[in-house]
Amino acid sequence: MAKLIVIGAGAAGLFAAGAAVRAGKRVTVLEHADAPGKKLLITGKGRCNVANNCTAEEFLKHVRRNPRFLYSALNGCPPARVMEIFERELGVPLKTERGRRVFPQSDRAADILNALLRWAQEAQLIYDGADALLMEDGCCAGVRLQSGRMLRADAVLVATGGVSYPTTGSTGDGYRFARQAGHTVIPPEPSLVALVERGDVCKRMAGLSLRNVALTLYESEKPLFCEQGEMLFTHFGVSGPLVLSASAHIRDIQKYQYRLCVNLKPALSPEQLDKRIRADFTELANREAAHSLQKLLPASMQPVMLQLWGVEPHRRVNQITRAERQRLAGLLQAFPIGIAEKGDLAHAVVTSGGVNVKEIDPKTMQSKLCPGLYFAGEVLDVDGCTGGYNLGIAFATAWAAGWA
Q: Could you report the per-residue pLDDT of 258-269, keeping only the tens digit for each?
């Protein structure tokens, strides 16, 4: 019976372990933390967006880096197969929400982790970290543990994740193992991360959450991303689902200028919005301009918008000109936020970068440089948008490696 060592008891590691057991392998899973799946427990705000209910072809459109590499793996384990495993084989009822995002009906990430532990229950789980690969004649023959023990195996799968959220155990060890075997590692960068503003507009509204707004990301004057949903103003800039998705489209923040425009009233056409503003202004005709936005915007946003609008706060509403009204409408449908930089890597949902996929067999996830060595999940230079795509990448690559 072939023996496989899996380094990492996260989503990819546990999924691969279960697949390998079903392929007839004897599996040992190594975990250096004191518990498995810590990062999984915080995904989706603790609800765990476990999949996206779409076809493999649609899935690939939402992979930001190296989508072609995933073609074979996704066809072997598409989202439908992942959902089938959790629902039919592991007994976790699922539900599909906006954007085809799939969650457990219980809204508990722990149910997904417990299901993965059941999936991999026939594998041996050892709480000891890998210190180095055992190399023999250019092949991977096992692992030296941090405790000093030597474990030999026919194959080793590195499923250690990236370097985001290091408190959950993502320490970047997988990159060290890859380099030991001669692999190129694309420098890790934050992806799906909050954005730091240029200025203090957002800071003045820190804590304000907006729903049903449309966010557009521009690179210079070129729109890169536009989607409707939720976002949050913070003490340093912006965060929330829309912002995380937009951040994945930022290529080189040192080379290009990036900005966000928020449509605060996406359900209204320009004509409808003008009619709405005129109706409000008619009702508030004798009030000061400082109080003219109370029906249009949340309280913490009103003074910020008033300043951007440029109308004197003490002017009467009935003195506001048509041009000033139109300028307000423009700001309501394109509220500007300059972007200075991405948030730090430690707080990114996903790490972009990792093991160069040109050096990996896309059908089996085996190293082209070192026989017996495999990679799966976030440690690879593949990442996607929010919405269950990154866990989908983890499961698809883990499935390919587990059955190889």
A: 999 999 999 999
Per residue in 292-314, pLDDT (tens digit) is 999 999 999 999 999 999 999 99
pTM: 0.89
Burial state string for 345-361 with b = 16 or more CB within 10 A and e = fewer than 16: beebbbbbbbbbbebbe
Q: Catalogue the long-range contacts made by 173-176 (C-beta closer than 8 Å, 24 or more residues apart).
A: 173/7, 173/32, 173/129, 173/130, 174/7, 174/8, 174/354, 174/355, 174/375, 174/379, 175/354, 175/355, 175/379
Q: What is the 3-state secondary structure (H, E, C) of 246-278?
A: HHCCCCCCCCCCEEEEEECCCCCCHHHHHHHHH
Centre a 10 Å sphere on the Cβ of residue 299 and count the other Cβ atoms it contains.
10
Q: What is the C-alpha separation between 248 and 251, in angstroms, rounded?
A: 8
DSSP 8-state code for residue 184: -
Between vectors from CA 72 to CA 395 and to CA 355, what angle results, nearest 5°? 65
Q: Tell me the pLDDT tens digit for each residue of 28-84.
A: 999 999 999 999 999 888 999 999 999 999 999 999 999 999 999 999 999 999 999
> For the packed helices 11-22 and 109-119, what is the interaxial angle rounded to 10 degrees?
30
CA atoms in the 13 A half-sphere facing the CB of 93: 3
Helix (H, G, I), strand (E, B), or coil: what is residue 133?
strand
- Give the CA radius of gyration of the chain: 25
Per residue in 189-223, pLDDT (tens digit) is 888 899 999 999 999 999 999 999 999 999 999 99
Residue with tokens 């993502």: 170
User: For 66-137, where are the E strands, in sequence order?
Assistant: 94-96, 101-104, 124-126, 130-136
Average pLDDT, the chain: 95
Residue 112 is predicted with a pLDDT of 98
Identify the burial level of 149 via C-beta atoms within 10 angstroms of its C-beta, where 0-12 means exposed, 13-18 middle and 19 or more buried: exposed
- Taking alpha carbons only, the member of 21, 49, 64 closest to residue 191 is 64
Helix H or strand E segment including 298 = none
Over residues 336-364, the pLDDT tens digits come to: 999 999 998 777 888 899 999 999 999 99
Q: What are phi and psi of 223, to 5 degrees?
A: -75, 130
Q: Residue 29: what residue type?
A: V
Residue whose pair of structure tokens reads 């992979």 in the numeric block: 63
Is residue 12 a contact partner of residue 162, using CB atoms and an 8 Å limit?
A: no
